[in-house]
Design a protein that fits this description.
Helices cover 54% and strands 7% of the residues. With 236 residues, the protein is mostly helical. A 3-stranded antiparallel beta sheet has the order 1-3-2, covered by helices on one side.
Length: 236
């Protein structure tokens, strides 16, 4: 006797459930469910199907309305990390009329390895008025880097919003590091002695400073001193 299959919404909630390709259309439809837990489970199930789910999701996107539209964009954005052909679709959704779809597109674009993304995000940032979307734009532009993105972040007014201020500060740090990595390569000539004494600071997890001091002393390369919580100074 063949055991009856569980309802798809129930099966999708099981992390061990491996959907069939024939389940994709129904799973996409369930993304519109008012119950977010069901929608999230179906999203995860679609990701387990992999690339075969992409064409069906794209087809439904054409006429999808909220909340399905925003959830489809989130699914496609997650697929886009491994499917570069979806980059143009994500970029095209940066100005979507559905706020949730637009925000999910912004978040997804910040994770793409595509040289056109930064300019598209900046174009959106120039006209975006929604505070939640500006937060997502700041985070995305911090990740994609670039001199123009860094300049936009530096000029961004946080509108007195603590969350935007926090995201902007973090994004500036990430973007600044990206710019530094992109600078001309430099090397350290390890066999050449320094013409003057050097002091170098190393960071460590708090509580492990003494271990770092002891390990450095064992190398016989100079003095290591506790400077402050999480920081050890090397002098030599």
């Amino acid at each position: 006797m063949t055991r009856a299959r569980r309802p798809l919404a129930e099966a999708a909630a099981d992390p061990t459930f491996q959907p069939r390709r024939s389940d994709v259309a129904a799973l996409v439809g369930l993304l519109a469910d008012a119950d977010e837990a069901i929608a999230d489970a179906c999203e995860s199930a679609l990701l387990r199907v992999g690339p075969p789910a992409i064409p069906i999701a794209l087809a439904r996107l054409d006429d999808a309305t909220p909340p399905l539209r925003g959830r489809l964009v989130r699914v496609l954005g997650r697929f886009a990390r491994e499917a570069p052909e979806l980059s143009a679709t994500i970029v095209g959704l940066l100005g979507d009329d559905d706020p949730k779809a637009r925000r999910n597109a912004i978040i997804a674009a910040g994770k793409l390895d595509d040289p056109t993304v930064s300019a598209a995000l900046l174009e959106r940032a120039a006209i975006e008025g929604s505070l939640p979307h500006l937060r997502s734009l700041a985070a995305a532009l911090g990740k994609v880097g670039g001199a123009d993105g860094l300049a936009w972040l530096e000029a961004l007014d946080d509108r007195g919003d603590p969350e935007l201020a926090r995201i902007r500060a973090q994004a500036l740090l990430i973007a600044g590091r990206s710019q530094t990595r992109g600078a001309a390569a430099s090397t350290i000539v390890g066999e050449r002695p320094s013409p003057r004494p050097l002091t170098v600071q190393l960071t460590a997890r708090r509580g492990l400073e003494a271990l770092l001091v002891d390990e450095w002393a064992a190398l016989g390369l100079g003095r290591a001193l506790f400077a402050e919580p999480g920081v050890v100074e090397l002098r030599g």
